[in-house]
Specification:
By secondary structure, the protein is of the alpha+beta class. It contains 18 helices and 22 strands. About 40% of the residues lie in helices and about 25% in strands.
């Protein structure tokens, strides 16, 4: 209850409780009997307002039949009012009234891609769809959660697939009221802040993989408190990503004005064409960097201090704890230091440079390289290296998929679960391991957050992202065995973070 009040306020929590108490919530009731009379091919999906079936008609054509729940049927009057609009606009399929809901022609469609440039193109089309719909006096607030309420044709055109009346808001009239009591105030009547928030939350979920957006989306339907808190959260989450450039445009637009949607569409399209676009998924985590006469102290995602030829690491007690990782790296460096082949090291996803500086300061390794796709980390590390006179520590901006450096030892720590589909388009552990192997002449030290890891689960199951082979510990170990003569356990952090030292020589 306290969490609900925190997310949506007292009034919103009361509305949620009344909805549950009065039995008017989005519960699918008696759908099995409602669909029993149809000769359907398969079920396409289900949600709070009903389920969708692929049905072969008597003329052998295929149609999608929406079998409405009691909640969905309560908003059918709003869908019926929109029938003429759907006939007019190409973004929508023309609907036909059916006994238990409605139907529309089947078309083979694909989910939208969630990678930044691709999704900017999707946002461009969403805005152009809204531009035409707003001109007809409606706005489509429910773009989907868990799955998008639109799909893409093979030539990349957007098609709406969810026509529940609760997804649309009338702009210039009260609109038909649902047949059942509904306590979701922002679903009943137009609220500009609510509509703006839904687009921001949709971007957070589908472009950045933030599942918390789903919780905020629900909370925002019940009142103003949920909307305000959702806007505060999306602004923080989009900071430091390409979407930050669109955030103020979205927050300042009037969703009732077609020209405002056109402006947003044009800015999304222009951003997608920007060659300098950096596909950053989050803001650089840098709390402080204190440069002293002969040392430095760094606080952020990584935490460490350098004093002359000494380097020490701080502990935060989490699964990406700098001190615990540094101990594993230190053990490996100590083991390899006497090998004549050990002359260089590459840290991919080097963040604030902790392990590059460990190799450069404590082991005097002649060539220590840190690569990260976030330029703010690289700027910070370069400043530290220059301040400390560490000419053997070099940093540069780069992407893993474009990395062609060859070194004695490659580090890939806290990285694989991001590379799988979040920051790159691999979708395959085999391809990731193959590319890691190409960067090292002798050794690889790699961390694998397994399928039970919370962060890995979040970043390897993102909507609209590549997934060609399973993300599992067994799959990862099998792929390591294909490229390295010897693979040995190098440590663990918690039960889900596994470290491997891989050697090309037996």
């Amino acid at each position: 209850m306290l969490q609900a009040i925190k997310r949506m306020g007292v009034a919103g929590t009361l509305r949620l409780a009344l909805e549950g108490r009065l039995g008017a919530g989005p519960v699918i009731q008696d759908l099995e009997s409602r669909k029993s009379g149809l000769q359907y091919i398969r079920e396409l999906g289900r949600g709070k307002d009903g389920l969708s079936l692929l049905v072969r008609e008597s003329d052998d054509s295929l149609r999608v039949h929406k079998i409405l729940s009691d909640y969905g049927r309560s908003f059918l009057v709003r869908t019926l009012e929109l029938f003429p609009v759907f006939e007019k606009l190409d973004w929508f399929f023309p609907l036909r009234k059916e006994e238990h809901g409605f139907s529309y022609p089947w078309e083979e469609l694909e989910p939208p891609a969630g990678y930044t440039r691709d999704f900017l193109g999707v946002v461009d089309q969403v805005c152009r769809m809204q531009m035409e719909l707003v001109a007809e006096g409606w706005v489509y607030w429910d773009l989907g959660s868990g799955h998008s309420n639109y799909l893409m044709t093979r030539d990349g055109a957007l098609r709406v697939i969810d026509y529940g009346g609760n997804a649309f808001l009338p702009l210039h009239h009260a609109g038909p009221r649902p047949a059942l009591p509904c306590w979701r105030a922002n679903v009943l009547s137009y609220n500009a802040e609510f509509v703006r928030l839904q687009l921001l939350l949709h971007i957070c979920e589908f472009a950045l993989g933030e599942l918390h957006a789903r919780t905020l989306r629900m909370a925002s339907q019940y009142g103003a408190t949920g909307v305000r808190r959702g806007i505060d959260w999306t602004q923080r989450r989009l900071r430091g990503t390409p979407w930050e450039q669109l955030t103020p445009v979205i927050l300042q637009m009037d969703p009732r004005r077609p020209d405002d949607w056109r402006t947003l569409a044009e800015q999304a399209a222009a951003l997608a064409q920007d060659d300098s676009l950096a596909d950053l998924q989050e803001e650089a985590d840098i709390d402080s960097v204190e440069l002293r006469e002969k040392g430095v102290t760094v606080e952020g995602y990584q935490a460490y201090s350098i004093d002359g030829k000494e380097i020490a690491f701080a502990s935060k007690g989490n699964l990406w704890d700098t001190r615990q990782k540094a101990e594993i790296v230190d053990t490996v460096l100590s083991k390899l230091r006497s090998a004549p082949e050990f002359r260089s090291m590459l840290d991919i996803g080097s963040n604030l440079g902790a392990y590059v500086f460990l190799a450069g300061v404590r082991y005097d390794l002649p060539r220590c390289i840190g690569v990260d796709y976030n330029g703010k980390y690289i700027e910070t590390c370069t400043r530290i290296a220059d301040h400390m006179g560490l000419s053997n520590c070099q940093f540069r901006v780069g992407r893993f998929s474009e990395e062609d450096e060859r070194v004695s030892l490659t580090l890939a720590l806290g990285l694989v679960h991001h590379l799988y589909q979040r920051t790159e388009t691999f979708g395959s552990l085999g391809d990731i391991v193959a590319h890691l192997a190409s960067t090292c002449t002798h050794w690889l030290l790699v961390e694998f957050p397994d399928e039970n890891d919370n962060k890995a689960g979040k970043w390897t199951r993102m909507p609209g992202r590549a997934s060609h082979s399973p993300y599992t510990k067994a799959e990862f170990e099998a792929r390591l065995g294909e490229h390295f003569a010897r693979v040995e356990a190098a440590g663990n952090i918690g039960p889900t973070r596994h470290f491997y030292l891989c050697s090309k020589q037996a």
